[in-house]
Amino acid sequence: MSSSNSSTAKRKQRESISPPPVKRKVQSGTTKRAPNDDTPATLLVGRYEPENTPTEPEKRTKVAAFDLDSTLIATASGKKHADAAADWKWWHASVPGKLKEMYKDQGYRIVVLSNQAGLVLHADPKAKTPKSTKDRVSAFKQKVNAVLTQLDLPITIYAATEKDIYRKPRPGMWKELCDDYDLAGDIDLKHSIFIGDAGGRIAAPKTTKDFSCSDRNFADNVGIEYKTPEEFFLGEKPRDFVREFDIVQFPYPENSKSPSLDVVFEKKNKQDIVLCCGPPGAGKSTFFWKHLKPLGYERVNQDTLKT
């Protein structure tokens, strides 16, 4: 009898104990796009969506695109390149407020387009990849997560990790964002803008020259307005700039009456290959459609093959 009472008491005691609390899974502020057939292997894509984001009544067709480093953020340490995930600060105190104004009051879609050649997404398993190289991707994700969490706006970041069609000034990242947001044919190019520090600016008193003109060239290639961070956030006047190669300085002689230009290209062989080399926007496609297609040539290009 005593044994039965003891068992009953133990059972009641177990039933009275509350189950352990369910651990809530911590959700990352950024998520890498799920891999599928059309996900570029060299492009890192992260998207931040604030909690309880309302459904938008209409599509946002104006895009405000920003570079990341030296545009939205700078290193807190003062070094040229960040050495840790926490080594960042806002490029200027006005950055968060300006982005929130563009999204909430002006109806812009906010995106970040960044060249990140130092990141290795798919290391060769047979190669001895340094641990520091592997850690860069993790540190970059942590930094981006912190930046986007502080902004707390719906933002997508695209980071090009190789020197391919996705690296600025090439238009690959722009085409990806248009596909992701279903903007092909609907995007408002006239009112869209890209802000980045690589504007090809020449040296001036107390200022150094830009390391590149890739951001300015990128904006030209996709057909939108371009501004430097100083112009956009601080209202400074544009500085003089130069391009290493500017196709505008070499106009095609459309109206020339020279007989030598009547025939631009002749097909002399039944089987041959015409190799067109030049930077984006140089006129390779235009040359093909105008002079080669009528002769029966077929066109092979990276934009079509996604290679």
Secondary-structure-derived class: alpha/beta
- Helicity level, as a percent range? 25-40%
Which outline best applies?
Answer: globular
What is the strand content? 5-15%
Q: How many strands, which pairing sense, and closed or not: the largest β-sheet?
A: 7 strands, mixed
What's the helix-strand series? HEEEEEHEHEHEHEHHH
Strand order of the largest sheet: 1-2-7-6-3-8-9
Radius of gyration: 27 Å
Average pLDDT number: 84
Number of extended strands: 9
Number of helices: 8
Distance between the termini: 81 Å
As residue ranges, the low-confidence spans are 10-37
In words, what does this structure look like?
By secondary structure, the chain is of the alpha/beta class. It is 27% helix and 12% strand. It has helices spanning 2-16, 95-104, 131-151, 172-180, 214-222, 229-234, 284-292, 302-305, and strands spanning 31-32, 43-48, 62-66, 73-74, 89-90, 108-115, 155-160, 193-195, 225-227. The chain has a seven-stranded mixed sheet, with helices on both faces. Helix 5 (214-222) links the parallel strand 8 and strand 9. The radius of gyration is 27 Å and the shape is globular. The termini are far apart. Residues 10-37 have low confidence and may be disordered.
